[in-house]
Amino acid sequence: MRLQNDLALYHSACQSGDLEKVKYYVEKKKHVIESDGIGNSGASGLHWASTCNRLAVVKYLVKNGVDVNLGSDNTDVGTALQWATRYGYIYVMFFLIQNGANTNSCDKDGNTLLHEAVKSGNVMAVLYVLFTLVDLHRLELNAKNKYGETALSLAAYQGDEWSVYSILRFGADITQQDLQGYTSLHNGVLSGNRRVVKYLLTYGADLTKTTKDMKTVSDIAKESRNLDIFIKPCKSCAWITKGKPLGYRFNRFWRNAITFSIPFALCGFLILNSGLIPTFFAVLPVIFLTPLLIKVVKLFVLQSYTPPETDHSSILETPMMVGVFLVNMGTFIVLWLVHLQEVFFNNEYYLNFVFPVLSTLLLLCYGRLIFSDPGCIPEETDTDLIRNDIEKLIKLGSFNCHTFCLKTWIRKPVRCSLSKLNQQQVARFDHYCAWIYNDVGLKNHKLYIFFLILLETFLMTFGVLNWRYFGLMEKTAECFLFNRTIICHGYKNLKVVFLFLVWTIFQAIFVGNLLMLQLRKIAYGITTFELVFLKEFVRNRSLETKICNDYFDVREAAKCDESASADISTCPKKYLITPRIHCTDPEATNRLLVVAEFLGFDEWRFPGEKEIQKRKETIGYIPSWYTATSYGKCTNIKDFWLSSQTNAPTLLRIFQLPNNSKALLNGEVVDYFRLYNMPQAS
């Protein structure tokens, strides 16, 4: 009886992480430890410490002779490694495996460690098992439990899209059926997760397979009221059912060609109509036709742009805006050729020389920017290197989705972000620009600034040419507001050119504001991506509000050997609540503020250090993505404009574009593809 009481107290100490009390039992009452977990006595202290993520206790017990494989002969209990894996405690798993834990043991239901990792809902645990056990042939990827379920089938049933993606990418057999005849696709439809279904279809899931009671995937979708979850991914992936394709997926060339050509088609339609009817009436059909064409594109073409991990794409994520820009540029050039060259014959030679030169330079710069590499970090395919990165991160206590990319399987450098367009991490990511159909990052950010400077100069030159052209026109009668002025002359004599001048002024203001904002952010050493998230963090109360069970504390446990505050980034999903990151700000209800935000004027205000610290005091933490990157305005400007070729002349370094992953940061040459720690400010 006394022994049972001692065991209960000892187990309680292991559960709570009371290391001093555990030491007392190990050192003073060895008979308790010796009888712990023996035979059919049930779970040991090591089991309880592992299942409660008490890494310090686990380390102490193992180092003091406790068998890491206690319970391996009792499938009703299982081993401590199985218990830790079931809850996704990566650092406990890592320590136990490093100290000889049996990785081939199964529980009473025949679940392997991969099954247990999937059950935890922690994709980081799944990745760890895949790279450290499955890749080294220490565990079977397609192993089934006693119900015939594979790890993939279980992940699909749970609706865990990242675990499904990881296991599929590792080469899991997608055709496997359980004892009831259910495939991973059947289970994915039951989960109600559209992304899971889309991943499975992308990797070749068979729609024709039936269960033991002859139910197809479509039947399961109807019974579970998830038909929409099933049909939309089928349309997106252009799957064929009943002999007919559900939707159509264009290849890259055709989808880009269709969206790119729409502005040219509308422009041609406008020109055709303007030759038959007055310009004002010719514009009206185009105004009504534009939303109709966009609707058609959304219905039939846009699904071809949607990657599996997203449910939809925006029209701005297509080359349509490139077509709009080129139509706009073409209109500028045509107006100059048809009307504005008249200024050349009135002693304005330099303007008519500058304009075609600017047009040529601008189009060349624009073309290069469209096809430029923003700084995409190559996807890692060497599993040995990936495994080494994972082990390094675990030893640092930082193996989570902020430091390891779930999509490309690389260790994430600081200041990078996953590009939806390129499906790769982009170094020093700034933003996605619809006008160039490309991301702006480390390698093309300087080129983007050159483009904005050229564009602003081009618009101002065109505006001056228009103004001089209106001054050459004959004096007209009075007109509204601007009697007998140059504006009045232009409006009365050539309305089309006048309206385009107004459009030019608007564009010049927009581009000028964008250019000045970019230069200001460069001086402050912050990217657009970082600024947006920082502003959301400061003003949005529900940003990254996450609730985590105290037992799911994986990162701090590895750092401090304690179970203190939790690192929520690796918590199992059922214990993690993550509201939408972009919530409606009360101030945004003002329509003027919404317009200002769209035009970029709201970015002039940067959150101050006091606001950041005040927010930190309110919620108790600063997001892990926030990193102070400003080293002083002078240093920040030099870091951006000067290339990493320190031996080259200064003027050449200013115009030299980055051709590799190296750039300046705090005056030092750093490799942004391997930048895991920021240089210390001097």
TrEMBL record:
Segments forming domain Palmitoyltransferase DHHC: 402-531
Membrane spanning residue stretches: 253-271, 277-297, 318-338, 350-371, 447-465, 496-517
Chief location bin: membrane
GO CC, one annotated term: membrane
Annotated InterPro entries: Ankyrin_rpt (IPR002110), Ankyrin_rpt-contain_sf (IPR036770), Palmitoyltrfase_DHHC (IPR001594)
Keywords on record: Acyltransferase, ANK repeat, Lipoprotein, Membrane, Palmitate, Repeat, Transferase, Transmembrane, Transmembrane helix
Similarity field: Belongs to the DHHC palmitoyltransferase family. AKR/ZDHHC17 subfamily.
Name of this chain's protein: Palmitoyltransferase
Species of provenance: Huiozyma naganishii (strain ATCC MYA-139 / BCRC 22969 / CBS 8797 / KCTC 17520 / NBRC 10181 / NCYC 3082 / Yp74L-3)
